[in-house]
Amino acid sequence: MTKKTSMLGSAGANTRLAHIGNDPLSYHGFVNPPVVHASTVLFPDSETMEKRGQPYSYGTRATPTTDALCAAFDELEGSAGTILVPSGLAAISVPFLAYLSAGDHALIVDSVYTPCRNFCNTMLTRLGVEIEYYDPEIGAGIDALIKPNTKLVHTEAPGSNTFEMQDIRAIADAAHKHGCVVTMDNTWATPLYFRPLDFGVDVSIHATTKYPSGHSDIIMGSVSANAQWWPKLEETRILMGICGAPDDSYQILRGLRTMGIRLEHHQKSALAIAQWLEGRDDVARVLHPALPSFPGHAIWKRDFKGASGVFSFVLKADSDNAKAKAHAFLDALTYFGLGYSWGGFESLALHVNLSDRTIRKQPEEGPVIRLQIGLEDIADLQQDLEQGFLAAAAV
């Protein structure tokens, strides 16, 4: 262990982000690891080739660039190993395929990321996996849903679009009594604000497209596992021929250096706007875990170190004109772009579709509008939202 490595264990978040995943002395002193493009890797002799007796054997297995990013995520997550995949959805589908087989039963939180739900309802069902959705606030009560063939429990906190909090420790403890693997989509909080493996989760999933990238120009996912579940995860990645690209890995590494600073700004601005929205008569509810009024606030305050820049609110509207008001609100925005994803420097907004939910369904008070608060000034974003409310009121 080097002196720097030993010091980083007790260093602050921004110090760690500045120094993990790179070793300048290994690359002639250059601060950033090089981008190594590779398919073929040459061996010095036949025996080495036969036994793969060198660190790198083929481009899909690993490169110095992808290894640097994996090392950074292992440091952040406290994991035994990390794989890189081409998207956030792949970061969900690969571990599901690694740990589930025909005849198995999987419990999936009802507030899950919609593409995850689509994958479960189509691909996994077609492969013979039984899928069951559960209430995000079930906590230790999930024990009653676990069957003899239950193999995986998937969590996401806060939940996509409606931001329900989950008692991750209670769910993990119940699942482990039955030998289930526990996975968690932790994209919202990042390992800076929540470390899933510290709360009993076995496999931590991220769309690194979001905050690790931070600039809306990279698609990638990461999956970090503890020692028990890491070998099967890595084996599945190799069998499926899935890997992260070196260029994308380099960009994500660069994004990590400023992620802590960016998250602080996202958090501060989002909370200020959420509090402002909470005082408006045309807003029925604000769905932000860091607000004391939010039902899951106590769990968030107990377990999380911070909040990111994504939350939702319920726009007051009768069922007859809910869609029209939501569209009028969104179409009047200027600084807020209308687009999917989040975690970049720019603010985004969208009308949330909750039609696929089976438990946590569409609120009766009106449409749900999700906001990604970027790095713009708060006053400008509030002025933009005012235009949206004026347009919605005119409908």
UniProtKB/TrEMBL annotation:
Enzyme class, spelled out: lyase
Modified residue annotations for N6-(pyridoxal phosphate)lysine: 210
Record keywords, A-Z: Lyase, Pyridoxal phosphate
KW Lyase (keyword) present: yes
Organism: Aliirhizobium smilacinae
PANTHER family for this protein: CYSTATHIONINE BETA-LYASE-RELATED
Name the UniProt record assigns to this protein: Cystathionine beta-lyase
Sample GO molecular function, one term: pyridoxal phosphate binding
CDD domains: CGS_like
Names of the cofactor(s): pyridoxal 5'-phosphate
